[in-house]
Amino acid sequence: LAIFHLPYFxxxxxxxxxxEEFLKRLAGVYLFMFFISIVVAYIISSYITxxxxxxxxxxxxxxxxxxxxxxxxxxxxxxxxxLVNAYNGMIDELEESAKKLAQSEREAAWREMAKQVAHxxxxxxTPMRLTIQSFQQRFDATAPDYKHKLNxxxxxxxxxxxxxxxxxxxxxxxxxxxxxxxxxxxxxxxxKNTLDIFTEESIEFSTTSNDITIHFDKPQMIRVITNLVxxxxxxxxxxxxxxxxxxxxxxxxxxxxxxxxxxxxxxxxNAQKVFEPKFTTKNSGMGLGLAIVKKIIETYKGSINFTSxxxxxxxxxxxxxxx
Length: 323
Prior knowledge:
Layout lengths: L11 H49 L17 H61 L7 H30 L7 E4 H9 L7 E5 L5 E4 L1 H18 L8 E7 L3 E8 L27 H11 L3 E7 L3 E9 L2
Parallel strand pairs: 2-4
Antiparallel strand pairs: 1-3, 4-5, 5-7, 6-7
């Protein structure tokens, strides 16, 4: 025996009304569920993207020449944690590789320096040896001009010894360049006083202000200016009308020192070697001038770069912070 209960409506209007109310309630439920799903989806996506953004920011800041921080996340999905762990492991490997690279570069630099020192010292030793051998064979104490020959022989040896002494002093100065006393100096005054030692009429000096002050070591600044000006003079030796321009300018936070010449310029294949300790395009010298300048400038948190065009000249630009 089964009993069915079926509503019976005498009027179709009542059934339509009930159906309409039911559909309204059903639509309300669906709209509420849809709203809840959007909120939940937003929360979940924000949670995921926040973790991914943290990872992305750290990856973009990663570099081999700086200290890289590891990622630390408190709450994240398993996949994100796996990604973070992989990144942190990569940071450890990167730091280890950076240490090995730095050590390798230092060793390579010292090997090159040793080769250069040996080469520069060997150069005067050869003529010294030949001079002594020749003196041994030809020296006659009974000859009337033996004193003159002896003095000539001694002068040659002293000249070669002075050359070796200059080599040793130059390399020693580069290797053990101390950080000087940082004090407020007026760059304009220092540059003017430094240029007074040069007699070349081709040197021109200009400045946007008579008071450009930075914190620097005065002797080191003199050294920088002297090296750059000497380099410009030597680069312009073969020019019919040499012209060397030294200019100073400043912004709110930085000071600019520019030295420009109209010399032969630097070949593109040599551009990467300009600041190397052993590089030189001159017939004499040890190639330490620009390397010393770069080391001094970087010690005071500055930078130096250059632009050059063959046959037209070179311009070196130094940027130094005021503080």
